[in-house]
Design a protein that fits this description.
By secondary structure, this protein is of the alpha+beta class. It has eleven helices and 16 strands. The strands form four sheets. Strands 2, 3, 5, 6 and 7 form a five-stranded antiparallel β-sheet that branches. A five-stranded mixed β-sheet has the order 14-13-12-15-16, covered by helices on one side. Strands 4-1-8-9 form a four-stranded mixed β-sheet, with no helix packed on it.
Length: 354
């Protein structure tokens, strides 16, 4: 009951949090520093000049966004992050001497210390629920029982704080307490605005069951929308040799590799060879422009979720370009074919194809 009352209290404060609101970030350096200071909030960046150790940032924000302040002094110094958009933030900065250990012995160095004198609502909520989780589970030894208790607290919070950044962050921090199916159900209930945040995309990634790429095994079915918004499944392409190509318009190595892939496609497309490109783009106009500019005249799909692309997550794609070659029955023949190795493999395959 006590937990629910805490959540209900904050819920009343959080209503209307998505509306554009004026924010103010102020602070001071207790140590000597005058110069430029930068604020990154979401996809936006601002700067101000520190005078006599004091600084301030003022602007407007809607959905609270992951934010941080940094400055450059020989190296870039990034300070503790916070969520900006639902209340003023006051920061106090100072240096602290820390010690370390290396082969030559102990050494000391100067580090920046961040102290939040005032936080916005999202951070207050996150701190409150994190404290509740810590308090309720500190004496629980059994991991299953611990995950069960965490799940109850998170679900309670998700109910009272539906579609807020605070509840999304709390869920993201406790993903291991939920099954893939449970996360998928929760994700589907999120608003489009929350789904579009990096936190929402991380939750989407956690809903995906990972698949090992094993030569000689059949690839599981998957589907995504093409450039016209029509769904294409890998199952629907059976009967051809398919190169599943992972790339993105912003990926320079991918763009350099594209002429090689184009040449292979032109040479083998009439022999039963097809390409299904899966883009890790997050902006449709960039994706479409790259397809046109590079003359990629084969099949293209994407969910426009960047590195959180569902198919890329499914196959644990961690760098691009990358690809998987499958035969007419969907059996995996090769992976990571680039340059001459792609044409060599296709030359090896197609003389044998009747």
């Amino acid at each position: 009951m006590k937990r629910s009352l805490v959540f209900s209290f904050f819920f009343c404060l959080a209503l209307g949090v998505f509306a554009q609101k004026t924010y103010l970030v102020t602070g001071n350096f207790k140590c000597p520093y005058d110069g430029l200071l930068y604020l990154v909030h979401g996809d936006e960046k601002d700067s101000t000049i520190v005078k006599n150790g004091a600084f301030s940032f003022k602007g407007k924000a809607g959905l609270p966004a992951f934010s941080y302040v940094y400055f450059k002094n020989k190296t870039t110094v990034t300070l503790d992050p916070f969520y900006l958009g639902d209340g003023d933030v006051v920061i106090e900065l100072d240096t602290v001497t820390k010690s370390g250990l290396r082969k030559s012995g102990k050494f000391s160095y100067i580090s920046m210390q961040t102290k939040f004198l005032k936080k916005g609502l999202t951070d207050k909520l996150i701190d409150s629920v994190s404290s509740i989780i810590s308090e309720r589970t500190k004496t629980v030894v059994d991991q299953v029982a611990k995950n069960s208790e965490i799940k109850k607290i998170v679900l309670d919070f998700l109910t009272s704080q539906a579609n807020t950044m605070a509840s999304t962050v709390i869920l993201k921090r406790n993903l291991v307490s939920f099954t893939h199916a449970e996360l998928k159900q929760i994700y589907q209930s999120l608003s489009a605005e929350i789904k579009d945040t990096s936190e929402g995309k991380d939750i989407l990634g956690a809903t995906i069951k990972l698949v090992r790429i094993v030569l000689g095994e059949k690839i599981p079915d998957f589907a995504q929308n093409d450039i016209k918004g029509e769904k294409i499944s890998i199952q629907s392409l059976r009967g051809k040799y398919i190169l599943i190509d992972f790339w993105a318009s912003w990926c320079i190595p991918c763009r350099k590799e594209n002429p090689v892939v184009v040449a292979a496609y032109q040479k083998f497309k009439d022999k039963g060879f097809e390409i299904l490109s899966v883009s890790l783009d997050d902006k449709k106009q960039n994706w479409l422009k790259a397809i046109k500019d590079d003359k990629l005249s084969w099949l293209h799909v994407s969910d426009l979720n960047g590195w959180n692309n569902e198919v890329a997550k499914m196959f644990s794609i961690r760098s691009i370009p990358d690809n998987i070659l499958i035969d007419k029955e969907g059996v995996i023949l090769a992976r990571g074919l680039t340059g001459v190795t792609l044409e060599e493999k296709l030359n090896e395959i197609f003389p044998k194809v009747k």
